[in-house]
């Protein structure tokens, strides 16, 4: 194991066994490489994203790496409010809403994540993706889904972690959050141009969502800007 710590990540990767290799059949060198690889992934968000995306032949681009640096700062507690404002099609939801929550829970196994989107359907779609990633990469992340709570919009881990998906204006009563991720709280430009809709989202934000935060909780908001007032008021919190 000591020798492995001095090897480059690419060399360690080359020593990893194939996924089909039974654990009982691993050599000492393979077992050590696998253990160190998993430790690296749980420590480094870029390494985790690279691992998770490798099966679809993708990897983080340069602007994604900047985003991942900020998300790591959120995990450490250096940033407690992060706004990610990027154009459509820039993979912001892939990194913030899909890949960040599993890695965060690997780092904080007993924490609670609340994920909100403009509709419950979209929020649950993200929840399903995150749940499936946790299940697929269970050994790598050191997480295991609880057998009795595995719904797309509400699931838990055996380590005490929780994930809850909710649509904007939906009920979050009884929930507490260490991290809140809000992905596209406004559905379209038409809604963003409506002062009535913006006021309703703002009241939900103040009266429902903010009251669910645990001490020291973080908020990450990711969206495409539609209106000068679509994120201005939440940013004040």
Give an overview of the whole structure:
This protein has 237 residues and is of the alpha/beta class. The protein has a domain of 162 residues: 3-Layer(aba) Sandwich (Rossmann fold), CATH 3.40.50. It has ten helices and seven strands. The longest helix has 17 residues.
Structural key phrases:
237 residues; alpha/beta; Rossmann fold; 7-stranded mixed β-sheet; 7 strands; globular
In short:
The protein is an alpha/beta fold. Helices cover 45% and strands 19% of the residues.
Outline the fold blueprint.
Layout (H helix, E strand, L loop, with lengths): L8 H6 L13 H16 L1 H9 L8 H15 L4 E5 L6 H16 L4 E6 L2 H17 L1 H4 L3 E7 L2 E4 L4 E6 L9 E7 L5 H4 L2 H15 L3 E11 L8 H4 L2
Parallel strand pairs: 1-7, 2-5, 2-6, 6-7
Antiparallel strand pairs: 3-4, 4-5
CATH architecture of one domain: 3-Layer(aba) Sandwich
Global mean pLDDT? 86
How much of the polypeptide forms β-strand, as a percent range?
A: 15-25%
Which oligomerization state do the chains in this entry correspond to? single chain
Shape: globular
Please compute the radius of gyration using only Cα atoms.
19 Å
Number of strands: 7
Low-confidence stretches: none
Listing every helix as H and every strand as E from the N terminus to the C terminus, the arrangement reads HHHHEHEHHEEEEHHEH
Helical stretch tally: 10
**Largest pleated sheet:** 7 strands, mixed
Q: What helical percentage do the residues reach?
A: 40-55%
Summing up helix and strand content along with how strands pair, one would put the structural category as alpha/beta
Q: If you consult CATH, what is the topology of one domain?
A: Rossmann fold
Strand order of the largest sheet: 1-7-6-2-5-4-3
N-to-C CA distance: 47 Å
């Amino acid at each position: 194991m000591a020798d492995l710590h001095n090897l480059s990540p690419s060399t360690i990767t080359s020593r990893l066994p194939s996924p089909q290799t039974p654990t009982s059949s691993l050599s000492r060198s393979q077992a050590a490489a696998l253990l160190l690889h998993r430790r690296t992934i749980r420590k480094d968000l870029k390494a985790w994203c690279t691992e998770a995306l490798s099966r679809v032949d993708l990897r983080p681009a340069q602007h994604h790496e900047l985003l991942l640096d900020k998300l790591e700062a959120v995990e450490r507690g250096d940033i407690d409010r992060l706004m990610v404002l990027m154009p459509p099609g820039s993979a912001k939801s892939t990194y913030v809403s899909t890949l960040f929550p599993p890695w965060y829970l690997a780092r904080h196994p007993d924490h609670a994540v609340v994920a909100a989107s403009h509709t419950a359907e979209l929020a649950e779609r993200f929840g399903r993706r995150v749940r499936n990633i946790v299940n697929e990469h269970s050994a790598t992340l050191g997480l295991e889904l609880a057998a009795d709570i595995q719904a797309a919009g509400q699931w838990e881990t055996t380590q005490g972690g929780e994930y809850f998906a909710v649509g904007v204006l939906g009920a979050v009563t009884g929930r507490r959050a260490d991290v809140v991720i809000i992905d596209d709280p406004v559905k379209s430009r038409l809604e963003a141009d409506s002062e009535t809709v913006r006021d309703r989202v703002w009241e939900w934000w103040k009266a429902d969502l903010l009251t669910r935060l645990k001490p020291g909780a973080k908020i990450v908001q990711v969206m495409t800007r539609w209106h000068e007032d679509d994120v201005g008021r939440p940013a004040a919190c």
